[in-house]
Design brief:
single chain, FBPase_C_dom, Fructose-1,6-Bisphosphatase, Chain A, domain 1, about 25% strand, D-Maltodextrin-Binding Protein, domain 2
Length: about 350
């Protein structure tokens, strides 16, 4: 019997489709702080739910699931039908996976106790960020943050398992539903992006070891509230205009952040006279993106301190957010400090 050794195809007839998310997670398992398989499965559960949400968003116009649901969430924001659908999809995936003991969601007033005392992880999630953009066919996203619970496994879930600073995250990520669907995540060992191939039903590694440019020429901020900014931020925005930087603001946090991560830029959602605590939520928006930003070489602050060092005091706590290329974040902080001192 003759044995032929395998050699990669060199005919050029069958190109490589790349590394799947599932295979990548298995390869990188040893990078996880607690490499026993649960975190790997948890990431797969999130990926599965995102595939379902991707399908739902793509058929929203045909299935009459666009538009408002007719209720408001705990934030006082009008829920869209797809907000509710996405929340259900992720809740089901995370509860059936068995690795999660509790969930904090933008769409729920209280912590969701899954009654899974053996679950080692807590997930904070914004199931569908920017969902009001669905009806006008603009990119939206999912943001997730994963913590290892701090109370003993087997005991009931406690509030300290949920109220942890961002520096305790073991993983975080986002899914961008746009011209293509991407999942980007970190476990504290760099940032990797995966693009969904719908005909195969798989995420493939498309953006390995993502690094944010140190500087950029894009600023993303809702200038409609300019009159409510502090003097330092107003001066910084004027300086961006003087330098002829590009103003890019989609209104979907994930989409704005993703663009700046790739091209270099800064996203700002500041404290204002109308919203002195900012608007974005710390636990399931700011912390998750700040972890990714830092792993990619970028920065994230509330204008005064590092986002990941903020101690949460309430479940749906809001925070200002300055996130993006490190040089731009440093500069806007300097502008604000100078103006504060000049007023004094």
């Amino acid at each position: 019997m003759k044995i032929k050794h395998y050699t990669p195809d060199q005919s050029g007839l069958a190109y490589s489709v790349g590394v799947t998310l599932d295979r990548f997670i298995k390869i990188k398992q040893e990078d996880f702080p607690f490499a026993s398989g649960e975190l790997s499965q948890l990431l797969r559960d999130i990926a599965l739910a995102s595939k379902i949400v991707n399908r739902e968003t793509n058929r929203a116009g045909l299935a009459n699931i666009g538009g408002a649901f007719g209720q408001t969430n705990v934030q006082g924001e009008e829920q869209q039908k797809l907000d509710v659908i996405a929340n259900i999809r992720f809740m089901r995936a995370l509860s059936k996976g068995g690795e999660v003991s509790a969930i904090v969601s933008e769409e729920d007033d209280e912590v969701i106790d899954l009654q899974n005392k053996s679950g080692k992880y807590v997930v904070a999630i914004d199931p569908l960020d920017g969902s009001s953009n669905i009806d006008v066919n603009i990119s939206i996203g999912t943001i997730f943050s994963i913590y290892r619970r701090v109370t003993p496994i087997g005991s009931p879930i406690q509030i300290e398992d949920v109220m942890q600073p961002g520096c305790n995250q073991v993983a975080s990520g986002y899914v961008l539903y746009g011209s293509s669907t991407m999942m980007v995540y970190t476990t504290g060992h760099g940032v990797n992006g995966f693009t969904y191939e719908p005909s195969l039903g798989e995420f493939f590694l498309s953006h390995p070891d993502m690094k944010a440019p140190r500087d950029g020429k894009i600023y993303s901020i809702n200038e409609g509230t300019f009159n409510h900014f502090d003097k330092g931020l107003k001066s910084y925005i004027e300086e961006c205009k003087n330098r002829e930087y590009s103003a890019r603001y989609i209104g979907s946090l994930v989409a704005d952040f993703h663009r700046n991560l790739l091209k270099g830029g800064i996203y700002i959602y500041p404290a204002t006279s109308k919203a002195p605590n900012g608007k974005l939520r710390l636990l399931y928006e700011a912390n998750a993106l700040a972890f990714i930003a830092e792993q990619a070489g970028a920065k994230a602050t509330d204008g005064k301190q590092r986002i990941l060092e903020i101690e949460p005091t309430s479940l749906h706590q809001r925070t200002p957010l300055y996130i993006g290329s490190s040089k731009m974040v440093d500069e806007v902080e300097r502008f604000q400090k100078v103006k504060v001192h000049s007023v004094i």
